[in-house]
Write a structure and sequence with these properties.
65 residues, alpha+beta, Ribosomal Protein L24e, Chain: T, two-stranded antiparallel sheet, 2 helices, 2 strands, globular, binds zinc ion, TRASH domain-containing protein
């Protein structure tokens, strides 16, 4: 089976990937969260930061467009 990695955080995807198609190009993310961060052009955050966030489950991200 092909290994999938999130385009945003580069984490290996073990569960169901979030697959989004934008302008005819398929993008793969580990979660809706990463998709949104990528979509809104939030600067890349580190794997360690993400791990902390996923651990805490208290994700509050302001998406100011
Ligand atoms: Zn991700």
């Amino acid at each position: 089976m092909q290994e999938l990695r999130c385009e945003y955080c580069n984490r290996q995807i073990k569960n169901e990937p979030e697959i989004r198609v934008r302008r005819g190009i398929k993008h793969v993310y580990c979660s809706e969260f990463c998709y949104r961060l990528h979509f809104y052009g939030v600067p890349r955050i580190t794997y360690e930061d993400l791990q902390k966030m996923y651990e805490l489950r208290t994700i509050s991200v302001k998406l100011e467009v």
